[in-house]
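Readers of this paper often ask what the protein records in our data store actually look like. Such a record has a labelled line for the sequence and another for the backbone structure tokens. Nothing more is needed to write down the fold, since each code stands for a local backbone conformation. The record that follows is passed on verbatim for readers who wish to inspect the format.
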Amino acid sequence: MTGTTLALLGLAFSLDLLVGEPPNAAHPVAWFGRLVDALDRRWLETDRGQRLVGVAIAAFAPLVPAVAAGGAVVLVGGVSTLAAAVVAGLVLFLSISLRSLLELTKTVIEATEDDLETAREQIRGLVGRETATLSPGELRSAAIESAAENLADGLVATLVPFALVAPISLPAAAAVAAWVKGVNTLDSMLGYPDKPIGTASARLDDLVMWLPARLTAGTIAIAAGDPAALGRARRWARDPPSPNSGWPMATLACVLERRLTKPGVYDLNPDAALPTLADGERAITLVGFAAVVAVIVAVVVAAVTTAVGIALEPGVVP
């Protein structure tokens, strides 16, 4: 199964780079977003009641895309094993997002040179903070922070679990990737302090993203040829409110030797200067290289899973 898994990793990654994300009307993640939007309402009068409803939403809503993805692979597998593998690869493709992230980050970074209005408008697709008063350096910082954080959410978090499970079961691998994407989507839509209904979703996302965020920090450090950056990043990685996002952001701040900041919330590598236009361009390149490192990690994970599976087969001598 290793060869099949590698082919599917290559298919998903290549489709993302060549095609990018489908339009919302044809994107299953957007369909799931509409479901989440319908669930985001006042079900009960008290905040405690809303939090309890939120627990049910966090527990069951991500199962919808997971069952749909896994079921699709099983259904198609009854007709053709090859077609089932392709469907699993398409599920992975739909659960990752690298090209659109890098393109939007590049648009914002370039606009900070001479078109701050465009930069402030476009960056709304990356961050939720107020941007009207941000300087060019702070706008570049926000874009770079988002690129680092979303490398974890938009690639590593689904790619590695898929690679881990695919050599064992393609339907399960598709289901896992879709489930993780569902958890991420729930958090992005509901996981705000002023939304009691999203508290459980935010906590679940914190748990799911614990390892991917730290793994992403490692890929950034390796891509930069600076493994020691992880040790330096530890000093600021816990400063952002999220227990996870600080790791890739602080690591990128360290390898760039630049300050990344959300005014009034956190300062990463605070003694350095804010990023220049050239720093922003370098950050985009580093995130792209880190994505390649993540794919290599996924390949290794798939190979290890296969080797362990073979070793555990009855009658096989390790």
Observations:
- The chain is about 70% helix and 0% strand.
